[in-house]
Design a protein that fits this description.
Blueprint: H1 2-39, E1 41-45, H2 51-69, E2 73-75, H3 81-90, E3 95-98, H4 100-109, E4 114-119, E5 127-132, E6 154-156, H5 162-174, E7 187-188, H6 192-201, E8 206-210, H7 211-219, E9 228-233, E10 241-244, H8 248-252, H9 256-265, H10 272-281, E11 286-288, H11 295-303
Helix pairs in contact: 2-10, 3-4
């Protein structure tokens, strides 16, 4: 009887020891996951296009950056342009692909934040004005011709979009057009793809959007060119760029911002994996940029009340 009790005691002890080991292993795995999550470089972007396209693009970019930098990289989607600025301000996003306006708004709220890279097309960027084919609007040859839009229905993109709102409104004001000159209230579609669809459908007679998105959708055959066409192309301005929070150097060490910038600049169209990322960005390459390049954007933002 004593032997039986002893065997049962030993089996119980072995079982308890095994369970303790499993629990310890489980806690260790959870701790590792927590550490990885805490140390991850978080990447975000203004939601200026279809969410599925953005998820694919930034998933590929995150994998590339993780390999190049040797740290975990997580893409964190946001609901709108303002949310991207807020997430950067409070530290939920370390690196964000901003438009010109949102980039300035974000940097003004985070001391030491830097614009570090842009696409080759972003130092000479353009907005296009499009019109429904039944609107009666004709090609505009000069900025003053924007007055043709008086008493027409019109939509911008997001309220905080540089190419879909800020700069179009700036050029409209230069032509002497106020928002009250449009028929009814102006629209804010939320993103460039939606602007195309709304004007194409005749919901609005005209609208303004990012030229690069327009050209890309044309190439994809995603635009009904019998229903909508470009009627004017704006003068050039600086637009999209990567903005980084300096706090990442506390996390990863001095010089990490430079390493990050180098990784972005090293994307090479001759490398198939890199080309896929660049194609999704609509770029041939990334080039260096700096905060001072967006002084005009800041001035226009203050002019129309988007920056206080």
């Amino acid at each position: 009887m004593k032997k039986l009790h002893r065997r049962l005691f030993l089996l119980s002890a072995v079982f308890s020891l095994g369970m303790a080991s499993l629990t310890a292993c489980g806690n260790s795995a959870e701790t590792t996951d927590a550490v990885d999550s805490a140390s991850a470089l978080t990447v975000g972007a203004i939601p200026d296009q279809d969410p599925e396209q953005l998820q694919r693009l930034y998933g590929l970019l995150s994998d590339y950056l993780s390999t190049e930098l040797g740290v975990p990289v997580n893409y964190v989607p946001v609901t709108d342009y303002a949310a991207a600025v807020t997430a950067f301000k409070v530290g939920d996003l370390d690196l964000v692909w901003f438009g010109g306006l949102t980039g300035v708004q974000a940097r003004l709220q985070v001391e030491g934040a830097q614009a570090i890279a842009q696409r080759d097309i972003d130092e000479q960027f353009h907005t296009v004005f499009i019109a429904n084919s039944e609107s009666g609007l004709t090609q505009l040859t000069d900025i003053d011709d924007l007055t043709q839009l008086k008493e027409r229905t019109f939509t911008f993109g997001s309220e905080s979009s540089t190419s879909g709102r800020l700069m179009p409104q700036h050029f409209l004001q230069q032509a002497g057009m106020a928002l009250d000159d449009f028929k009814g209230e102006v629209g804010f579609s939320g993103n460039h793809d939606t602007t195309i669809k709304l004007v194409e459908a005749g919901t609005y007679q005209a609208g303004a959007l990012n030229e690069q998105v327009w050209e890309k959708r044309l190439a994809e055959g995603a635009v009904d060119q019998d229903s909508v066409e470009v009627i004017w192309r704006t003068p050039a301005y600086y637009d999209y760029h990567w903005v980084v929070n300096p706090v990442i150097e506390e996390r990863y060490g001095e010089g990490f911002v430079t390493q990050l910038q180098t990784a972005l600049l090293n994307l090479d169209a001759a490398v198939p994996e890199h080309q896929e990322i660049l194609d999704l960005f609509g770029a041939e390459t990334f080039i260096p940029t700096e905060n001072s390049n967006y002084a005009e954007i800041e001035a226009v933002g203050r002019e129309i009340g988007k920056i206080q």
